[in-house]
Specification:
alpha/beta, GMP Synthetase, Chain A, domain 3, Rossmann fold, Helicase, Ruva Protein, domain 3, 4 domains, globular, binds adenosine-5'-diphosphate, binds magnesium ion
């Protein structure tokens, strides 16, 4: 077949792939070889070839067959930039220019409103609940060889995921200024993707995301259920991993717990290192408050802090670090306005709303509802007599959580589970403890439910 015949095939392809796709992807192709069941085309860049191969090679094969030149395989090679091949050379040049353009554009995006300067490793307080996540983040921020890909950080709201990610960007800029690091939220990823689709800039979009050395996407649970964004994310992800580029992701839950996520994406997300930020403990909260205090000390000179205030806050505000920080900030602002010492009286006056809401006790009823929802059983079955394992097991989980997360006694719990005896409750709790020790799935389930109930 001559290039003329290929010309005819191309005419057909316009109809199949549409004019836009045709101009962008098919027109620049040059047929360089057609025999032994192989059609080979020259393309301006590797990326270009990958894209055409993934999206249009079936069409190309089909039309070649129609034209009487069936092939088994369609291959793409990057064209040498010689005078003999001016079209491809020009195209490659254009592509390279575009690439350079995006290289310059990335740092701009990184210095935008997205990066918080105070989110550094220095200001991150490390304790038992976050030490693994911190260590993994530190490792990646060294910018050494990629060892785990992706790094997947997850944990509840306000536990420091975004802080750690920003810290990694700051650190990487120091340790590896040569690397192109792109940090954005999953929402921004989707927004840009949709915009690129609309403006017919999808090629630029792809090149931008494939040209970075480290890609960090915050709150990836956001893309669940958004099918075309998921799909695009998946391709970006694979392209980067294949090129041994580091990916860091965060989410509010583990990959396995994100609903409406395609199975292949889920398993990809799990294929690196998955680490969670556990809910804070008293020690960590106190550490964070102390670190914050040093920070405010310079800002509010002359204010005094009575003993016991930090301990009280660390004890009472257990939900999330953001609320804890907000409380301390409000105390300092208030105290400096009214010129008073920061003591427990002032805390009560100034933080009554926060203290009240963290006072809100979790009820057994709420636990039963959450557990029933999670296991897809009826709320009434939590209380009812059914002994079927698919119902009895969730009921025992709810008993276990009621004991763990409320201050109710066993007889009180028994009454709320349809008037069961306290020994039945005790038995249920033991059973769950055993299962948790023996079975990772059960332990994960209980962990997840706890987190859901705490938030
Ligand atoms: P997430 O992204 O997990 O919802 P953030 O990273 O936004 O949470 O953290 C919420 C706030 O709590 C931020 O101001 C952050 O600096 C602070 N914070 C969380 N964990 C820590 C920590 N271990 N040390 C210091 N500050 C922390
Ligand atoms: Mg965040």
């Amino acid at each position: 077949m001559t290039n003329d015949a290929w010309g005819q095939v191309r005419e057909e392809l316009i109809k199949r792939v549409g004019e836009n796709n045709y101009t962008t992807w098919i027109e620049p192709l040059r047929l360089s070889h057609l025999k032994n069941g192989v059609a080979r085309f020259e393309v301006p860049t590797t990326f270009f070839g990958d894209w055409v191969s993934r999206n249009f090679s079936d069409h190309i094969r089909g039309q070649l067959a129609v034209a009487g030149a069936p092939v088994d395989r369609v291959e793409f090679t990057v064209a040498a930039q010689t005078a003999a091949n001016p079209t491809a050379a020009k195209s490659a040049q254009r592509s390279a220019q575009k690439m350079n353009g995006t290289r310059e554009a990335i740092p701009d995006e990184l210095t935008g409103a997205q990066l918080e300067t105070r989110f550094t490793f220095d200001s991150f307080v490390v304790g038992k609940p976050n030490e693994l996540a911190h260590a993994a983040a530190r490792r990646v921020a060294e910018g050494g060889p990629v060892t785990f890909n992706p790094l997947f950080l997850y944990g509840g709201v306000g536990l420091g995921k975004t802080h750690l990610m920003h810290a990694m960007v700051h650190e990487l800029k120091q340790s590896r200024p040569d690397l192109r690091v792109l940090y954005l939220s999953a929402e921004q990823f989707m927004y840009r993707f949709v915009q690129a689709l609309r403006d017919k800039q999808i090629m630029n979009f792809k090149e931008l995301f494939r040209s970075v050395d480290v890609l960090m996407v915050d709150d990836v649970q956001f893309i669940a259920g958004k099918d075309s964004t998921q799909e695009e994310f998946f391709h970006t992800f694979n392209a980067l991993v294949d090129n041994n580029k580091q990916i860091v992701l965060s989410a509010d839950r583990a990959p396995g717990e994100i609903k409406d996520l395609e199975e292949r994406i889920r398993s990809r997300l799990q294929s690196g290192l998955v680490v969670d930020l556990h809910p804070t403990d008293y020690e960590l909260r106190l550490g964070i408050l102390q670190a914050k205090l040093d920070h405010y000390a310079g800002q509010y000179r002359g204010l005094t802090l009575a003993p016991g205030v930090l301990e009280f806050l660390a004890h009472r505000i257990t939900t999330n670090v953001r609320v804890l920080e907000g409380a301390l900030m409000r105390l300092f602002a208030f105290a400096s306005l009214v010129g008073r010492e920061i003591n427990l009286d002032l805390v009560q006056e100034c933080l009554s709303d926060i203290l009240r809401s963290s006072d809100k006790r979790l009820t057994i009823e709420e636990i039963q509802r959450k557990v029933a929802e999670h296991y897809n059983v009826r709320l009434s079955d939590m209380i009812g007599p059914k002994r079927l394992r698919t119902i009895a097991r969730p009921r025992q989980v709810a008993m276990y959580l009621s004991k763990q997360m409320t201050s109710r006694s066993l007889p009180e719990i028994g009454r709320r589970f349809g008037g069961r005896d306290h020994t039945t409750i005790m038995h249920g709790i033991r059973k769950i403890e055993e299962l948790m020790a023996a079975d990772g799935q059960m332990a994960d389930d209980v962990q997840l439910l706890k987190r859901l109930l705490q938030s």
